[in-house]
Amino acid sequence: MAAKKTTGTAAVKKSPAKNKQTMQTVNASEIAFDDLKRMFAREEPKSVHGEFTWSNNYYWQWGLKKILSRFELSGMPESWDVNYFWSHLFLDGYIAILDTTLGVIPLKCGFTGLNVWDRPTNIIIANHLLGSFERKIGVDSALIHLQFDYTGVSPILQRFSTLLAMCDSAISVNLMNSKVAFIGFVDDQAQAKTMQKMYDEISAGVPAVFPRKSQVNSENFMFNNVKQSFIADDVMILRRKIVNDFLSDIGINNANLDKRERLNEQEVNANNEEVRFNVLNWLDTIQEGLDVANRLYSLNLSIKLREVKAVETAEMAVENEPSESY
Q1: Pairing relation of β-strands 122-127 and 131-136?
Q2: Given this model, what pLDDT does residue 130 score?
Q3: Which of 28, 72, 106, 239 supports an S-S bond with 306, CB 3.0-4.6 Å?
Q4: What whole-number distance in Å separates Cα of residue 163 and Cα of residue 183?
């Protein structure tokens, strides 16, 4: 029997309607691979590992803005798109600066080739207006990268957005459970309707309700101690500590949450050097690439840390009124 001839287009088996999921339509030919990877390979919290939630997206964007606001770039030409430069440098982990028909501009890129120290030797440009081509790093292009391993900040954002979104989920569930004050037990549907009517009248503010004596006794109800199981306030403290861990990772001073008393300025700034070490490598590595661009194209690019005061949290007491709680 002759084999069935196949065509160049693969057939895709349709899943049953009950398994259909709403997905975002993406034209892959118009999006760089690194952008696609960030869009679909990001981890979001579901139970203990991840789910696609608004809360996760919120914290991911929130964290990215915090990171980008930590640095200040001087000498950037007005014609450059600063958001384009920052997003590709910090999310992809690298960006190129080179001379094109549009002038000296930054462009997202890939890289290829290895020197004796296993560092890339060439950049690869694939732009919808400028076309595809290669340039030699340090000769006719400069490669600006964030870290020594050419990675971006996505792992940091994934980790903390997941943890913070899980805190939000725990708080929401706990608030919902706190509404379950009691549970009533009945023998049949008629009795259930009677109990429901009684509860509706009480909730509506009826001053006196008169059910049958046989239907009201302590055995018919289970009273839930909602205060005993209420942990939302503890989760909010934990969420604040996770935020402070994130701020430390990106070099922003933050207050010590383990103290209940008012924190003085010296204590708030006690971790200045510790948090600064976390971003010094980023700063030095970026400036190294900018120096190459300055030499090749007579630019005057430089980067520095934006001065940020220690984050004052709700756990810090006011000047004349010591705090009694976290």
Answers
A1: antiparallel
A2: 95
A3: 72
A4: 33
